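does this look right to u?? calcium ion version
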Amino acid sequence: MSKENILVIEDEKNIVELVKYNLEQEGFAVRTSLRGDAGLEEARRARPDLVILDLMLPGMDGLEICRALKQNEKTAHIPIIMLTAKSEETDQIVGFELGADDYVTKPFSPRQLVARVKAVLRRVHEKPKEKIFRVGVLEMDTGKYLVTLKGKAVELSSKEFELLKALLEANGRVLSREYLLENVWGYDRSVEIETRTVDMHIGQLRKKIKAEAHRVITVKNVGYRMDVDS
Ligand code: CA
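got this back:
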């Protein structure tokens, strides 16, 4: 089996070395780039299986790189994990809107990052079960990876799509934040869990499904459910 290729775009040499070492230990082939502009070129040329992307980079910042990769059909499928500092929460939101698949907050443990990389790749490799859901004017076709409102396409990030799918599949049942983190994000329960991530994505999802936003119901201290009956 050929090794999966990971591209790490990060300007802090000690982080690059640590990440590279730990990913290689897990059997990944790792390329690195210390500059944003060179990293984007490398991603376009090498088309890795996954990109680990820092936000603050010389040459070109992480958000610009994320946008450039996701807007080009040749690289749009490449999953991106962003590295962010706690203070960069708005950048995380922008990153998700641009299509980043996950983020890891600095400082992180190599074990945490490796777990996220594996979770993202596992999700990418899973073959979707094709199914169509309809509630109100909202329709989801999981085979076509398409969500529409009154027939008009809604642009969802990959996480928002998976979140909506999980809620629809639950058919009215309550899903806890922990369940969603495990099943939508693929987090292992042993990994430090940030349930805020779920709330952030629910917020984005509600904005995008407009007229049907009221169906996504917050169940206090537990999680979320979708009203699929009314
Ligand atoms: Ca940096």
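The chain has two domains: 5-125, 132-226. idk if thats expected tbh
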